[in-house]
């Protein structure tokens, strides 16, 4: 008779423990063969991923983001009994908030993982946006204002840094020489995961990518309770400016884009009021316990300044707009639809059309003119320049900093 060599491991106490299936076989005295027990199909996210995340997390407990500890004199926060107690019971149930944030972040990781693998030159910008947004809607289990897309998918190219997404009928095609910023938003109960990365198909831009990745990591590492926003900008700037990139025989310094910034995020409000510029400045405002921040940096081979340029796609209702009586009935009706479908979350023309709206442009422009809706035009540096972006969302918990959108990719 054959003797099977069983896989085993020696524990700290010296006991030999049989591993996995082999342990079952050993205890039951069965031979190594596939069992015919009625087994459930193993649940797997498909390709493209379209299975709602609650199927994988039936207890509603989602993976924790990357934990970073506060620096130096802030280390007491990690150990303080009082702080841990606070985090557990005080406030308005932080655990619920954390699970919403973590579900949104996990959807973000899965959607972008698929996007990174499938985005290729030759695809239309519309195809790319639809793929990403279809994935988000399915995985987050889109439901009214309870869960869904957090803001329009940013697909800005080259000198354009932010806030381009295709409008309906856009047939433009991604080019092999493009520097593409993919900025994806996912929300659960208004908690928005806001994270972005840059894709290229040409190694020319590798240093530009590395510069911006490092600058964003600096912003994340140096962020913390009581950190001054103006100083954080200086640290981001130092990192970014330590890089240069050679393009066609010319060496360019990598410049932080001085009029773009990271931002705090409040429930259903993409910009919560605090801004993190990418250059040193005298903003004495401090980050605070409980703050939720999108740390994003942009590097450029151009002037390092953006201007609004091109057709608008992004919009959001002004969060605290005063009531304005509207005479234009089309604008009144459009505002009702915006309130119902998006509330104060940002949206784009394509999303309006999904809700059944058509020929809405006059009414929409009226709402913008009346200060009820804010338009967000594409933001671009000078022609011929290249810009890159990396962004993560972080949560300043009482005891530790959680980089909620961190993945194995960036
Ligand atoms: C505005 C409109 C949107 C917020 C940053 C951002 C994409 O540039 C204070 C600081 C989506 C987002 C935003 F449709 N912006 N993050 N990801 N865009 S921002 C801003 O307007 S406000 C930065
Ligand atoms: Mn973003
Ligand atoms: Mn952002």
UniProtKB/TrEMBL annotation:
<keyword id="KW-0645">Protease</keyword>
<comment type="similarity">
    <text>Belongs to the peptidase M24A family. Methionine aminopeptidase eukaryotic type 2 subfamily.</text>
</comment>
<dbReference type="GO" id="GO:0006508">
    <property type="term" value="P:proteolysis"/>
</dbReference>
<dbReference type="GO" id="GO:0070006">
    <property type="term" value="F:metalloaminopeptidase activity"/>
</dbReference>
<feature type="domain" description="Peptidase M24">
    <location>
        <begin position="100"/>
        <end position="297"/>
    </location>
</feature>
<feature type="binding site">
    <location>
        <position position="271"/>
    </location>
    <ligand>
        <name>substrate</name>
    </ligand>
</feature>
<keyword id="KW-0479">Metal-binding</keyword>
<feature type="binding site">
    <location>
        <position position="263"/>
    </location>
    <ligand>
        <name>a divalent metal cation 2</name>
    </ligand>
</feature>
<dbReference type="GO" id="GO:0004239">
    <property type="term" value="F:initiator methionyl aminopeptidase activity"/>
</dbReference>
<keyword id="KW-0963">Cytoplasm</keyword>
<feature type="binding site">
    <location>
        <position position="391"/>
    </location>
    <ligand>
        <name>a divalent metal cation 2</name>
    </ligand>
</feature>
<dbReference type="InterPro" id="IPR036390">
    <property type="entry name" value="WH_DNA-bd_sf"/>
</dbReference>
<keyword id="KW-0031">Aminopeptidase</keyword>
<feature type="binding site">
    <location>
        <position position="296"/>
    </location>
    <ligand>
        <name>a divalent metal cation 2</name>
    </ligand>
</feature>
<protein>
    <recommendedName>
        <fullName>Methionine aminopeptidase 2</fullName>
        <ecNumber>3.4.11.18</ecNumber>
    </recommendedName>
</protein>
<dbReference type="GO" id="GO:0046872">
    <property type="term" value="F:metal ion binding"/>
</dbReference>
<feature type="binding site">
    <location>
        <position position="163"/>
    </location>
    <ligand>
        <name>substrate</name>
    </ligand>
</feature>
<feature type="binding site">
    <location>
        <position position="194"/>
    </location>
    <ligand>
        <name>a divalent metal cation 2</name>
    </ligand>
</feature>
<feature type="binding site">
    <location>
        <position position="183"/>
    </location>
    <ligand>
        <name>a divalent metal cation 1</name>
    </ligand>
</feature>
<dbReference type="InterPro" id="IPR001714">
    <property type="entry name" value="Pept_M24_MAP"/>
</dbReference>
<dbReference type="InterPro" id="IPR036005">
    <property type="entry name" value="Creatinase/aminopeptidase-like"/>
</dbReference>
<keyword id="KW-0378">Hydrolase</keyword>
<feature type="binding site">
    <location>
        <position position="194"/>
    </location>
    <ligand>
        <name>a divalent metal cation 1</name>
    </ligand>
</feature>
<feature type="region of interest" description="Disordered">
    <location>
        <begin position="21"/>
        <end position="58"/>
    </location>
</feature>
<dbReference type="Pfam" id="PF00557">
    <property type="entry name" value="Peptidase_M24"/>
</dbReference>
<feature type="compositionally biased region" description="Basic residues">
    <location>
        <begin position="30"/>
        <end position="42"/>
    </location>
</feature>
<dbReference type="InterPro" id="IPR050247">
    <property type="entry name" value="Met_Aminopeptidase_Type2"/>
</dbReference>
<comment type="function">
    <text>Cotranslationally removes the N-terminal methionine from nascent proteins. The N-terminal methionine is often cleaved when the second residue in the primary sequence is small and uncharged (Met-Ala-, Cys, Gly, Pro, Ser, Thr, or Val).</text>
</comment>
<dbReference type="InterPro" id="IPR000994">
    <property type="entry name" value="Pept_M24"/>
</dbReference>
<dbReference type="InterPro" id="IPR036388">
    <property type="entry name" value="WH-like_DNA-bd_sf"/>
</dbReference>
<dbReference type="InterPro" id="IPR002468">
    <property type="entry name" value="Pept_M24A_MAP2"/>
</dbReference>
<feature type="binding site">
    <location>
        <position position="391"/>
    </location>
    <ligand>
        <name>a divalent metal cation 1</name>
    </ligand>
</feature>
<dbReference type="GO" id="GO:0005737">
    <property type="term" value="C:cytoplasm"/>
</dbReference>
